[in-house]
């Protein structure tokens, strides 16, 4: 059931907490902790509904809304973002209140028309436009490319609430939907995973938008994203983290992402990790088998690393398919300022290292060595080469 609750004097949460969701964007994004589709009812003399929920929950969304308001009393709908997880209940809702104006960006008009093929009563808005609810005012702030061209935020001046669209969101389902009622480390990990997998391709835009929003000097009592917890106890923490994440983010971490056919590349990975740890004693070194680790968690770990090693056996004159998939994902998020090298075992051809290196270079990594390939199962001499390779890589990363 949908559960509405007041988040301030005049704002009620009317979204859907989806405890069962385990993947998103098809199967592109894992959501191991569920998610929520946040929607808000803002009441002044007039009433505005900010966003709806994903279509499978449309009936319960509308039933829940009806339990707290006569739908005819909704004067405005605001679509902060056209994507279906937030707009999916619009068709059902607009059957009940067909002429209600929908405030969104011009790109939002295009996306909603493209998806629902309805000529609803759209009202395009831009940064600085205001919606007067009678005693309360919503101010719109475009959030183009965070993370689609149509994203929009709005600020409720009277109550100091920023409705931040997908920005600052996390795929997490928590019954008490606040940042101070759940393990903050888990919330921040989910916020970082969201940033790494969804926002990072537009990190430069995120950085500029952060600066623009902060320059507005808006007092913030609550930040209400479209997914996950509402920020109230850790607003400065999430703002600070977004600033860091959007600016060539790296922790003192090196990760080794690899896949292996018959364990030889795994043996190499472990020996290389040992070599790295001998030199860079302060760094966290993580080994991630790409066929056994969730791809979005790998992206998050790569995003958090100062350097990455990519490893694969050679098969069919190429690299293993899980590595190809992960490298393709990583290429899409356009990371900068990270060092990399490649390694792999082979029996006959030995093409994998060259292919991995080219892929990593195309993905924006700074390649610090030509890589290491070992034929057949590594013997002690070969493992010593791997340890030395790890040591040299660590030295190159340390500069
Ligand atoms: Fe949460 Fe981009 O939709």
Show the helix and strand layout.
Blueprint: E1 5-6, E2 11-13, E3 16-18, E4 23-24, E5 29-30, E6 35-37, E7 40-43, E8 47-50, H1 58-68, E9 76-78, H2 84-87, H3 90-96, E10 102-104, H4 106-116, E11 122-124, E12 130-132, E13 137-142, E14 152-156, E15 161-163, H5 184-199, H6 203-215, E16 222-224, H7 235-245, E17 253-259, H8 264-279, E18 284-289, H9 295-303, E19 307-312, H10 321-333, E20 339-346, H11 352-362, E21 366-367, E22 372-375, H12 380-398
Helix pairs in contact: 5-7, 5-9, 6-7, 8-12, 9-10, 10-11
The protein binds MU-OXO-diiron (FEO).
What does this protein structure show overall?
The protein has helices at residues 58-68, 84-87, 90-96, 106-116, 184-199, 203-215, 235-245, 264-279, 295-303, 321-333, 352-362, 380-398, and strands at residues 5-6, 11-13, 16-18, 23-24, 29-30, 35-37, 40-43, 47-50, 76-78, 102-104, 122-124, 130-132, 137-142, 152-156, 161-163, 222-224, 253-259, 284-289, 307-312, 339-346, 366-367, 372-375. The protein has 399 residues and is α/β, with parallel strands linked by helices. The protein has two domains: 5-245, Metallo-beta-lactamase, Chain A (4-Layer Sandwich), CATH 3.60.15.10; 254-398, Flavodoxin domain (Rossmann fold), CATH 3.40.50. It has a seven-stranded mixed β-sheet. Strands 17, 18, 19, 20, 21 and 22 form a six-stranded parallel β-sheet that branches. Strands 12-13-14-15-16 form a five-stranded mixed β-sheet, with no helix packed on it. The mean pLDDT is 96. Bound molecules: MU-OXO-diiron. Residues 81, 83, 85-86, 147, 166, 226-227 line the site of MU-OXO-diiron (FEO).
